[in-house]
């Protein structure tokens, strides 16, 4: 494992009419093949380095930008305001440490169209999703979002 090097990813739990979108990862995926997850992706330097800085030395809203792009690429949807849920860290099977920033948002528009990294999708309630083979932690996050949305309404 390399010291002081982490992969940073962001994910989005998308809510629509009391249901949540999950995607099944393709069998060729290096990490978590055939597991169900939510849309998201990796943050790479090229996601911001070629863009004008927001301040003299920094870029604002990069995670929001890449997460919206990943949602569009992975499942062809647009979402409303992305709200921060939590962060988590895990070590991939290839010993790369990953920091994940988890967000949630309401569905805004679009019809689900999957890219090649995914084989299936499902809009399910918390109760329906408990039986899906989700990546560890995703179900708990969906339950957290469901609780937040229920107490908000």
Secondary structure: elements and pairs:
Blueprint: E1 7-16, E2 19-25, E3 36-37, E4 40-42, H1 62-75, E5 78-79, E6 83-91, E7 97-109, E8 118-124, H2 126-129, H3 138-152
Parallel strand pairs: 1-7
Antiparallel strand pairs: 1-2, 1-4, 2-3, 2-8, 5-7, 6-7
In a nutshell, what does this entry contain?
This protein has 153 residues and is α+β, with helices and mostly antiparallel strands. It is built from 3 helices and 8 strands.
Q: Key features?
A:
153 residues; alpha+beta; Nucleoside Triphosphate Pyrophosphohydrolase; 8-stranded mixed sheet; 3 helices; 35% strand
Please provide a written account of the structure.
With 153 residues, the chain is an alpha+beta fold. It has a single domain, classed as Nucleoside Triphosphate Pyrophosphohydrolase (Alpha-Beta Complex), CATH 3.90.79. Helix content is 22%, strand content 35%. Strands 1, 2, 3, 4, 5, 6, 7 and 8 form an 8-stranded mixed sheet that branches. The longest helix is centred in the last third of the chain and has 15 residues, at 138-152. It is globular and about 45 Å long.
Number of helical elements: 3
Provide the CATH architecture: Alpha-Beta Complex
Strand content: 25-35%
Any idea what the radius of gyration is?
A: 16 Å
The overall number of domains is: 1
Q: Ranges with pLDDT <50 over ≥5 residues?
A: none
Number of strands: 8
- Sheet with the most strands, sense and barrel status: 8 strands, mixed
Q: Mean pLDDT, rounded to whole units?
A: 94
Q: Structural class of the helix and strand makeup?
A: alpha+beta
Percent helix, as a range, is 10-25%
CATH superfamily: Nucleoside Triphosphate Pyrophosphohydrolase
The arrangement of helices and strands along the chain is EEEEHEEEEHH
C-alpha termini separation: 45 Å
CATH class bucket:
Alpha Beta
**CATH third-level topology:** Nucleoside Triphosphate Pyrophosphohydrolase
Indicate the overall shape.
globular
């Amino acid at each position: 494992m390399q010291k002081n090097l982490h992969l940073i990813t962001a994910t989005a739990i998308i809510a629509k009419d009391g249901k949540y979108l999950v995607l099944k990862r393709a069998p060729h995926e290096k990490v978590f093949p055939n597991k169900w997850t939510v849309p998201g992706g990796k943050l790479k330097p090229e996601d911001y380095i070629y863009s004008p800085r927001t301040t003299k030395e920094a870029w604002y809203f990069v995670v929001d930008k890449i997460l919206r792009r990943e949602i569009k690429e992975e499942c062809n949807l647009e979402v409303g305001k992305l709200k921060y849920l939590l962060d988590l860290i895990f070590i991939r099977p290839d010993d790369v440490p990953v920091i994940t920033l988890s967000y949630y948002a309401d569905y805004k528009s679009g019809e689900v169209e999957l890219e090649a990294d995914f084989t299936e999708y499902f809009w399910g309630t918390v109760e329906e999703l408990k039986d899906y083979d989700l990546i560890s932690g995703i179900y708990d996050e969906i339950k957290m979002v469901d609780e937040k949305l229920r107490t908000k309404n």
